[in-house]
Amino acid sequence: MTDAAWAPVLPARERAAVLDRLAASARPHRVPHSVRPDLAGGGAGLALAYHWLDRALPGRGYGALAEGYLAAALRGYARLGASPGLFGGAAGLAFAVWSLSHDEAALHRHVVDEVTARARRAADGPYSSRAVDVVAGLTGAGAYLLCRRDDPAAAEALRTVLTALTRTRFPDRPDPGMAHGTAGPLALLALALAAEATVPGQREAAVRLAAALAAGRADDAWGPDWPAPATGRPLRASWCRGGPGIARALWLAGTALDDAELRGLAVRALRAALRRPPERRRVDGDPGLCHGVTGLLHITSRFAHDTGDPGLTTAAARLAAGPLPSGGGPGFLDGAAGVTLALLGAATDAAPGWDRALLLA
């Protein structure tokens, strides 16, 4: 593992080519007065993308676009309202506000209050994957609260979320994946442990979830993988459900628990995903962070940074330099905003703090 500053995986010539490509596709334009506020496909995700573009390529108007989309998203939130979820709700917008160093006290307070109430209900109720997942549930909102734990109210809300996750009776055969499965809660429990944000039973819960995920794998000719629970069929090599996202959760757990075996399994699982042919891993035709090739790219970049493994650096560089499929719209999860952020992570030395929303670091 390494504590070094973030470094691009791409060589200098390829870095310049990627940045030129991004600059050509991200031309200054007029921002709508009001846009959808969500992080997944709305203004919050675009604000993040233009903010990181401005850090990489200052003086080209990207900072004004980031501020414009954030303001438009806040106006959309005032008009439409939102649940407290991370990708479709207020927590994602609050994450963008925080990332751009703004302060929207009423929005923050809404997230804290709503998430606290939901966590208390979840702690006493039956298991529901939607109630605890990353996309709409407690885990995703907890990712935002972990960023804001310097605020006493947010720190207390985070403890309430962690307590609920610690007490949750997850299925004996856990659902795989970061977006809706048990890998997401494991990643949050592990990141909170590493940040010394803890509640009673949290470490033991992380050990149980990690062991269940490790036991649920099914090795194939390339290495460790996780099949769909209902059918046993292979899943995409994606962040949302497949082996790369699960591998990252196991790496974070192995780091927080000081478990070298878990970290080793995580690296083997990612290498296996990278070795599988495109028709097997089924992400190469999709651009998105969620279930596409840039999700695999960014997870590989994170592993390359943490392990210092030159083979993983080369694999990430190959993914970043190759032709990427088009489509997916402008969004963070499936479209251009997420693609831009992943490429910036590969091509610049700006630490990709935006990926806390994916619970990758």
Please mark out the parts with pLDDT under 50 across 5 or more consecutive residues, or reply none: none
The arrangement of helices and strands along the chain is: HHHHHHHHHHHHHHHH
Characterize the quaternary organization of these chains. Answer: single chain
Q: Please bin the fraction of helical residues.
A: 55-70%
Largest sheet: none
Question: What is the gyration radius calculated from CA atoms?
Answer: 19 Å
Total helix count?
A: 16
What is the mean pLDDT? 95
Account of the 3D structure:
This protein is mainly alpha-helical and 361 residues long. It has 16 helices and no strands. The chain has helices at residues 12-25, 43-56, 62-80, 90-99, 105-124, 129-132, 138-147, 152-167, 183-194, 202-215, 243-257, 260-275, 278-281, 293-307, 310-321, 336-347. Helix 5 (105-124) runs parallel beside helix 8. The longest helix has 20 residues, at 105-124. The chain is globular and about 50 Å long. The two termini are 13 Å apart.
